Amino acid sequence: MAMTDQSPATMEVSDEIAITIESMNKWYGQFHVLRDIDLTVYRGERIVICGPSGSGKSTLIRCINALEEHQAGSITVDGTLLSSDLKNIDKIRSEVGMCFQHFNLFPHLTILENCTLAPIWVRKTPKKEAEETAMHFLEKVKIPDQANKYPGQLSGGQQQRVAIARSLCMKPRIMLFDEPTSALDPEMIKEVLDTMIELAEEGMTMLCVTHEMGFARQVANRVIFMDAGQIVEQNEPEEFFSNPKSDRTKLFLSQILGH
Amino acid sequence: MSDTQTNSSVAFVQTEQIPPSPPPASEVGIVNWLRSKLFYSIPSSVMTLLAIAFIYWLCSIILPWVFNGVWDATSIRDCRDQLQGATGGCFAVISERWPQLIFGNYPADEYWRAVLALIGLFVALAPVLFFNLPRQLLWFTGLFPFIAYWLIWGGSLWVSIFALVGVVVGFFVFRALSERSFFGAIVAGIFATLLFWIFLTPALSGALSGIIPLMLVPVESRFIGGFMINFILGTSGIALSLPLGIALALGRQSNLPIIKGICVVFIEFIRGVPLITLLFVASVMLAYFLPPGTTFDLVLRVIIMVTLFAAAYIAEAIRGGLAALSRGQYEAADSLGLDYWQAMRLIILPQALKISIPSIVNIAIGLFKDTTLVSIISMFDVLGMIQGPILSSTEWFGVYWELLAFAGLLFFVFCYGISQYSQWLERQLNTGHR
User: Residue A176 phi/psi, 5° resolution?
Assistant: First the structure.
């Protein structure tokens, strides 16, 4: 996590490759969800993936940490080839943090316990150290005072920020966001986006499925548009929004930016 | 928008908060409660009066029978003489036959052992039931089954000690292998314990009790009876069926087809067979399957059957809890890098078990009451004692009501206690939302 003072959109991206996806295909039964996906993500990149529902964008990022299995092609994360070998899967999962649309905090544990659970059991971090790390990240997402409450007592925006802190406690090198603001009230979307922007400023490699186009413009260095299981267009945000190449992208952008 | 500023009936800004005020007097007070809950209409008033009449009628029968009862008599004839035709229960049978009702034919000089085991049980249960007690007490809980076995059945303490050593050996086998495969380690651990029990425990305990006896008078299973046997069967059945039920529920959800198949067949088979059939199998049939000469204690056989029976039901209750959890909980656990067993132990089961508490308690209460079925396979539990030795004696021939009411009350006290505990536990575990 290199600290920089630059604004995220102008930040340099390193040459080091974080994720390589090569001609990856996935089926749900007979249904061909992802078709010949090729994608290279460099360390420090902030990629926003958008597209109509059912286009496979969530499935794509869920394949990266093996929540979904792909049937053809290859995914390499941080040099580790994703195979059915459980050791590789666990290694990749501990390197890759993930935030879900519905937060998926553990409701029977306090906020602090939510954050310390994986470091203690997966990384074998001593409890005290794990708690210090957890408090550090809870401060970062600006809710250290809620540490001893349960998720059910927090607002949606606060829960999503805890979910981000929980992932950060594992010190991931890559963060995946699966529509992190889609289940939130308009007032709470900003607080979550601010947290994500801050994360981007620190140089975290991020893949974000979202419909927040303002966020994409401000933070992303690449926007990917997907439709019907394939990558239709990818470009820098400025170019993507002002001068979309494909007709499908133009239609999509006119739909979501038109209202 | 400009016309809203001029039209004051549309534009409105609240500048101060309306302070809270107490509810109107008609909403509080006893008279209001009576009117709104009991007499709010003519039919409701009629129903209320009818219900009061019914309760009065019930009390007028039961209360004289209870309060006019005879507690000190030597036989049913003695009771009738003392009552001289008045209504009243002959409760003397309970005080007279108390030891039989509670301990069965357990030798009278050894009652203290059973009482001590009961006290020990409460101490052992305390840290399991109330998690704010010091965790060190759990060591006693772990030791208790072995102590209780020694206290109740007697014999040499070495048997219990080496049974315990077997468990410790199993635990170390588990620990040595758990890094590689949690499931394999559990199986290997159980296997090591069973091997130790079968091949080493009898020899070692026999040898050592020859040197240092540490003996209590041995009591055979057929002498253990009364409410004591219900209690032993109930507590060990519940305690053993819970882990087995969890294992079966997880097995039924497994991706491995053979494990899943075994669990499904087991659960469906056991649930499809009446408990009494299983008990007959335990009392009669099992002996055919065992090699001749093996003594396999009847109480142990019944405990196994009762455990298997309850485990099948508990497995289904827990499956319901597992099904109630969202897919997201599994995914969150996976995405954090927890392996299957960590996810189950730390994330999934705590929530699933909490959801299934009411059904598990339901099964536990049912199991506890079903232990009276052993009277049918001629074990002298509390009902067996009542039906057999007490009611067929010349002194107490025909004292059904008092004895059955007593047995009912005994079960009610414990079952109601279990129910109250479970409600308390649910409140304790409530953390806002599911």
Answer: -110, 135
User: Over the stretch A201-248, which tens digit does the pLDDT of each residue have?
Assistant: 888 999 999 988 888 888 888 999 999 889 999 988 888 888 888 889
The continuous run of DSSP H or E covering B124 comes out as: helix B111-129
Q: Look at residue A3 and tell me whether its pLDDT is greater than 50.
A: no
How far is it between the farthest Cα atoms of chain A? Answer: 55
Q: Is the pLDDT of residue B10 over 70?
A: yes
Cα dihedral B376, B377, B378, B383 sign? negative
Separation CA B32–CA B39 (nearest Å): 10
pLDDT digits (tens, 9 = 90+) for A38-85: 999 999 899 999 998 888 999 999 999 889 988 999 999 988 888 878
Which value does ipTM take for this structure?
0.89
- Report the alpha-carbon distance of residue B109 to residue B115 in Å, rounded: 12
The two three-digit tokens of residue B367, written as one number: 């199991």
d(CA A38, CA B433): 42
Minimal CA separation from A94 to chain B, in Å: 5
Contact A150 B350 (CB under 8 A): no
Q: Most distant CA pair in chain B: distance in Å?
A: 107
Burial of B384 (0-12, 13-18, 19+ CB in 10 A): buried
Amino acid at B148: A
Q: How confident is the model at residue B6 (pLDDT cuts 50, 70, 90)?
A: low
Give B224's DSSP letter.
B
* End-to-end C-alpha distance for chain B, whole angstroms: 46
pLDDT band at B292 (very low <50, low <70, confident <90, very high): low
Nearest CB to A102: which of B328, B335, B337? Answer: B328
State residue B234 phi and psi, 5-degree precision. -65, -50
Chain A hits for B432, CB-CB cut-off 8 Å, are 107, 150-153
A122 at interface of B, judged by CB pairs closer than 8 A: yes
Of B312, B167, B148, the C-alpha closest to B231 is: B148
The upper half-sphere exposure of residue B106, i.e. CA atoms within 13 Å in the direction of its Cβ, equals: 26
B24-64: per-residue pLDDT in tens?
776 777 888 888 888 888 999 999 999 999 999 999 989 98
* Parallel, antiparallel or unpaired: strands A205-209 and A46-50: parallel
- Whole-Å CA distances, A137 to A111, A147, B76: 12, 11, 78
Please return the burial class of B414, using the count of CB atoms within 10 Å of its CB with bins 0-12, 13-18 and 19+.
middle
CA–CA gap between residue B264 and residue B270 (Å, rounded): 10
Question: Residue A151 in contact with residue A103, Cβ under 8 Å?
Answer: yes
Please give the radius of gyration of chain A, using alpha carbons only, rounded to the nearest integer.
18
B133: closest CA of chain A, how far (Å): 20
Q: Which residue has the higher pLDDT, B267 or B131?
A: B267
Q: B347 and A90 in contact by Cβ < 8 A?
A: no
Instruction: Please tell me the predicted confidence (pLDDT) of residue B411.
Output: 94
